[in-house]
């Protein structure tokens, strides 16, 4: 068992690597949340993620005493994760290379599962097994702390153990291709080369973001008990307003419909008022004229009014059928995913509805965003997106990280969901031709805006 002086010496010798690890956890862990770190050592990582309540456990009593002295606003205990018993619930559970030292990983994961609520994230890092010989050599050359025999697990090993203990993997990846500090060189390699395809597979640090799997009884109960708000931004769509109501399915315990009218030049606002009066005995309909401009602003104003547990965006052009919203609601309410993204590229689409060039551009942006967000997305431009209100509120609270960059409203949600580690799934929809009005989209202009958004995502998410 190492003394505090020895632990600090090795940390100082490999400070560049530890700082990169801390940067990773800072990105994924929201501040002011309840955080448990398993294998907390001297407490530096737990402190840097800024929890509202932080508990660190470690088997080394010397390290725990030092952590208590150093960070008296946090809590530390001498405890083996295999013996962990507590009634506390955490928002995040961190294991920074800890599973390499655990003698019974399945038991540890079983114990941790009991400390989770439905949105808890388990964030763990481990060494790429391909680095085993390099790290052994580094130990011989006294560039790395001597360690006992380790568990050299690969991604499939850990996914299997998580699955056996009722967790599911949301995201995995690699980072840090050069763990020693050479000024300019290390920063360039790790920031710009390590995230690239092919080179990424040689990185030292592998990571997994996992969540507890929703139990079947909880899923069925949510389908019955959760309510929903459907936000319908409408600009120059007078001929579609009534169909939004007549074709709307009943969703969950209660369905609220919110029209946000956006400075129309036709009689859209008058039609919204007429439809509200006509159907007020059958539907809970709220209406508003947006104070700002653009769909993104309309969506935010609608979400601010919404009272439902689940928030749905439906474009008032009805190119996505209201009847298909049941699939989105069921996916979110059941817990099968946490962010439902409409996908128009599964079923056949006519050339008139989506011209070939538009389809190819959509596929390109979907591929690019899938790479940047490390999440498979087949259709990035469908306006129908669905998530729980509690998750939207977390995205809104975390919005300062990205800033006000998105005039469409779709990417603000998509990027925010990705950063929070929400499980994102495509929901196939049948894309229908317009029956009224003309599209408000300016394809060439907005294509350049999308490229700008993708470059922004690269800077804020991928190349950090």
| Helix share, percent | 25-40%
**What is the total number of structural domains?**
2
Give the CATH level 1 class of the largest domain: Alpha Beta
Residue windows where pLDDT falls under 50 for at least 5 positions? none
* Distance from first to last alpha carbon: 35 Å
The outline comes out as elongated
The appropriate CATH architecture of the largest domain is Alpha-Beta Complex
Strand content: 15-25%
Computed CA radius of gyration, to the nearest angstrom: 25 Å
Mean pLDDT reading = 92
The largest sheet has its strands arranged as 3-2-1-4-5-7-6
Count every helix, treating DSSP H or I runs of 4 or more residues as helices: 17
CATH topology of the largest domain: Spore Coat Polysaccharide Biosynthesis Protein SpsA, Chain A
Number of strands: 14
Q: By CATH's scheme, which homologous superfamily of the largest domain applies?
A: Spore Coat Polysaccharide Biosynthesis Protein SpsA, Chain A
Classification by helices and strands = alpha/beta
Largest sheet properties: 7 strands, mixed
Helices and strands in order:
Layout: H1 4-13, H2 15-28, E1 34-38, H3 44-48, E2 53-58, H4 61-70, E3 75-78, E4 90-96, H5 105-113, E5 116-127, H6 132-140, H7 155-164, E6 167-175, H8 185-193, E7 205-212, H9 216-225, E8 228-234, H10 241-246, E9 255-261, H11 268-279, E10 284-289, H12 294-305, E11 310-313, H13 325-333, E12 339-343, H14 356-373, E13 385-388, H15 389-397, H16 410-419, E14 424-428, H17 443-462
Parallel strand pairs: 1-2, 1-4, 2-3, 4-5, 8-9, 8-11, 9-10, 12-14
Antiparallel strand pairs: 5-7, 6-7, 11-13, 12-13
Helix pairs in contact: 14-17
């Amino acid at each position: 068992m190492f003394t505090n002086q020895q632990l600090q010496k090795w940390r100082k010798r490999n400070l560049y690597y530890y700082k990169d690890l801390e940067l990773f956890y800072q990105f994924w862990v929201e501040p002011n949340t309840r955080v448990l770190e398993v294998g907390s050592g001297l407490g530096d990582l737990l402190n840097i993620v800024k929890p509202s309540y932080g508990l660190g456990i470690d088997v080394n009593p010397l390290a725990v005493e030092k952590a208590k002295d150093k960070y008296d606003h946090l809590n530390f205990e001498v405890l083996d994760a295999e013996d962990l018993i507590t009634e506390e619930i955490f928002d995040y559970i961190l294991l920074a290379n800890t599973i390499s030292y655990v003698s019974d990983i399945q038991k540890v994961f079983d114990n941790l599962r009991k400390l989770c609520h439905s949105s808890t994230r388990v964030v763990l890092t481990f060494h790429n097994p391909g680095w085993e010989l390099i790290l052994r050599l580094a130990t011989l050359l006294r560039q790395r702390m001597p360690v006992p025999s380790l568990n050299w697990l690969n991604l499939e090993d850990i996914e299997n153990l998580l699955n056996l203990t009722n967790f599911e993997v949301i995201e995995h990846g690699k980072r840090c291709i050069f763990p020693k500090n050479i000024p300019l060189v290390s920063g360039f390699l790790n920031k710009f080369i390590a995230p690239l395809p092919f080179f990424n597979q040689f990185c030292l640090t592998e990571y997994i973001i996992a969540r507890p799997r929703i139990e079947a009884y909880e899923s069925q109960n949510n389908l019955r008990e959760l309510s929903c708000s459907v936000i319908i931004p409408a600009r120059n769509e007078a001929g579609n307003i009534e169909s939004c109501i007549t074709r709307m399915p009943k969703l969950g315990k209660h369905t609220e419909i919110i029209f946000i009218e956006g400075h129309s030049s036709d009689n859209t606002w008058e039609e919204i008022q007429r439809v509200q009066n006509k159907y007020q005995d059958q539907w809970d309909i709220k209406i508003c004229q947006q104070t700002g401009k653009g769909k993104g602003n309309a969506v935010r104003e609608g979400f601010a009014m919404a009272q439902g547990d689940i928030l749905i965006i439906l474009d008032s052009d009805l190119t996505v059928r209201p009847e298909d919203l049941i699939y989105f609601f069921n996916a979110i309410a059941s817990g099968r995913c946490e962010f439902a993204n409409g996908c128009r590229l599964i079923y056949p689409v006519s050339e008139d509805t989506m011209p070939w060039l538009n389809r190819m551009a959509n596929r390109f942006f979907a591929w690019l965003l899938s790479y940047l967000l490390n999440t498979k997305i087949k259709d990035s431009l469908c306006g129908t997106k669905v998530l729980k209100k509690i998750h939207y509120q977390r995205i809104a609270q975390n919005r300062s990280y990205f800033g006000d960059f998105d005039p469409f409203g779709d990417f603000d949600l998509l990027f925010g969901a990705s950063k929070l580690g929400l499980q994102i799934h495509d929901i196939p929809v049948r894309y229908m031709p317009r029956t009224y009005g003309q599209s408000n989209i300016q394809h060439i202009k907005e294509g350049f805006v999308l490229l700008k958004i993708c470059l922004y995502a690269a800077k804020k998410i991928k190349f950090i």
